Amino acid sequence: MACHRLKLPYSVGLVVAGIVITLLPLGIPTPLTPDLIFFVFLPPLVFEAAIQIPWKPFRRELPLLLALVTFGVVLATVVVAVGMHLIVGWSWLGAAFFGILIAATDPVAVIAAFKTMHVERRLHLLVESESLLNDGVAAVGFAILVIVASGGNAGPSNIALHLVTNIAGAILAGGVVAFGLILIAGRTTDRLVEITLTMLIAYGSFLLAEHFHCSGVLATLTAGLIVGNYGFLGSISENGRQSVLSHWEFAAFLVNSLIFILIGGRETQMPILDVIETAAIAAGLSLAGRAVAVYPVMMSFAKTKLSVSWKYKHVLFWGGLRGALALALALALPANIAERETIITVAFAVVAFSIFVQGLSMPWLIDWLHLRTEPEKADLSAAKAINRIENEEAEAEAKGG
């Protein structure tokens, strides 16, 4: 409520609250572990975002999104890893781990700003979808580096096989769980049962994929897209749809609140001042990596129907905040990484920088770029964009015929 009155992102206020809670002599523990983030917090966050994504616009933007989360993530990782190795002196493996984990974005503060300031739907879709896919790819990349660090067979063929099986297995796990439980949901009109089944889909898809060493993030993303675009078409009752959406909106808000409070609490326990110079270099490199991931990749689509304005590019660049997944991956670093403790501390420092500097300045950036609009205008703009693209596709099909 205070953040709303002060027009601040609530994530910033919650991090401050976590810091205050830890500093007060209350004895309240603020644990933040990889398992807590991965298996408790991530499934509802990913699922809630995924069920809100309409399939048709998402499919249309998919070539651009895939370029951003593949070439973009690789470029960002390389920039950060090379910089940390050459400037700071970290080992190549430690620098690579840091590069891939800090490439994972978390636009919670940005999306919250979007909801209050009303930006065009395409920008909202690009930011949220890119972040979800980005997290999945970063998690897969981290898993490949774990294989390398453990001394396993890390040849090109083995890495390619692991990559394919990881992604395919995650999509399969998400599809099996989602479609299976949606069929059951179609046999009831009890909204509480329907909400419970969607909870089982969110956590079940994540846990099933992780059990077979596949990406739980991609599995839950797949399941969320299926529920949001197929499940709501008939399997989930008319009365249950709004209840399901309201439940997940609250669940995501609650989980985000807990995450940012715990991040704030953990920040006070990290010796950030001891690595402040390294953290400053890492923050600068993370921004440079994000710039390389966004601008060149999106410029390659400049002459296509998926071209993106410079205003959108600036928001995607500055809105690439780091959050829970980056910290979970940092805390899950193998013990044999020489710089493990330093990497964890630096990761917390970079996350704090992104929340306080990028998160706080995002509303100002949106206003400066004149991206704020009324809800009706945002909807109209989105409709016009969709109609334009559909007309271009129809014309192309007619010429092909």
UniProtKB/TrEMBL annotation:
It is a multi-pass membrane protein. The chain crosses the membrane at residues 12-30, 36-55, 62-84, 90-112, 132-151, 163-185, 192-209, 215-233, 245-263, 275-295, 315-337, 343-366. One of its GO terms (molecular function) is potassium:proton antiporter activity. Its main location: membrane. It comes from the Bacteria. Keywords: Cell membrane, Ion transport, Membrane, Sodium, Sodium transport, Transmembrane, Transmembrane helix, Transport. GO terms for biological process: regulation of intracellular pH; sodium ion import across plasma membrane. GO terms for cellular component: plasma membrane. Residues 3-367 form the Cation/H+ exchanger transmembrane domain. It is found in: Cell membrane. This is Cation:proton antiporter. It comes from Stakelama marina.
